[in-house]
Amino acid sequence: MRVRTKGAGRGDLPSAGGWIQVVKFGDGSAVVCTDNEFTGRPVSDPKQLRILSMRYGVIRAQALTPRESSVFVERVLGET
Questions:
Q1: Which of 20, 35, 47, 64 has its CA 20 to 30 Å from the CA of residue 41?
Q2: Count of CB atoms within 10 A of residue 49's CB?
Q3: Which residues of the chain fall below pLDDT 50?
């Protein structure tokens, strides 16, 4: 899953901007990539995985709902 961390106006997100991608495997292992930390290299160190996975969780928790997203997109389109 990839999440962009710029945009929707829900306050500060726990990332400097860009994206976080979490790849989870069937055996329970995971790899995280970001475009602003670790220069886009995959991260598999358990400590860094926990930190980035927690950030990803916070970002998801702050994300707009589908209905809020629709209203946001319609508002932005109306402003252009």
A1: 64
A2: 16
A3: 1-10
